[in-house]
Specification:
Elements: H1 3-12, H2 21-36, H3 43-50, H4 54-66, E1 70-73, E2 79-82, H5 91-98, H6 121-138, H7 142-145
Antiparallel strand pairs: 1-2
Helix pairs in contact: 2-3, 2-4, 2-5
């Protein structure tokens, strides 16, 4: 299984929460838009494909519009369009806009920073894993998921 398949598995494991539901829904909507190959896709069309309420999806799409990932088209036949090509929209872009930085390198032993934070061997090992994971996520584009 490739990383794109693993992300879906990680997402559905409640203790991992690698990506949140907003990122998941945004990715589904962008994949639908890219596959539709239309200049504009309505929120209603996306809602049916993504399987989420219209107001919730609209809120996600507005954030993507505000950050330049989508274009909003007003009026009859309006909706949203990709502002960039599918190969130029990365999963990491969606995470940054809708979730914030991915961080798995919190102390596993205590809820707060402990006095060993700078010298903790486990933290350094996890930091290396986190760096590789972020690099992999940055390499996934909407085009890869079509």
């Amino acid at each position: 299984m490739g990383l794109d398949g693993m992300i879906l598995v990680w997402y559905h494991i409640s203790c991992m929460n690698l990506i949140n539901r907003n990122v998941d829904y945004a990715a589904r909507a962008l994949i639908f838009m890219a596959r539709a190959n239309k200049p504009t896709v309505s929120v209603t069309q996306m809602q049916e494909a993504v399987g989420v309420s219209r107001p919730f999806l609209r809120k996600i799409l507005q954030k993507l519009h505000q950050t330049g990932i989508l274009q909003a088209v007003k009026g009859k036949g309006g909706g949203f369009a990709l502002a960039r090509t599918p190969e130029n929209i990365r999963l990491s872009d969606l995470v940054a806009v809708l979730q914030g930085p991915l961080k798995i390198n919190d102390c596993v032993f205590e809820k707060k920073l402990c006095h060993l934070h700078g010298a903790c061997l486990l933290r350094h090992k996890i930091e290396a894993i986190e760096t590789r994971m972020l690099s992999e996520i940055d390499g996934i584009t909407v085009k890869d998921l079509i």
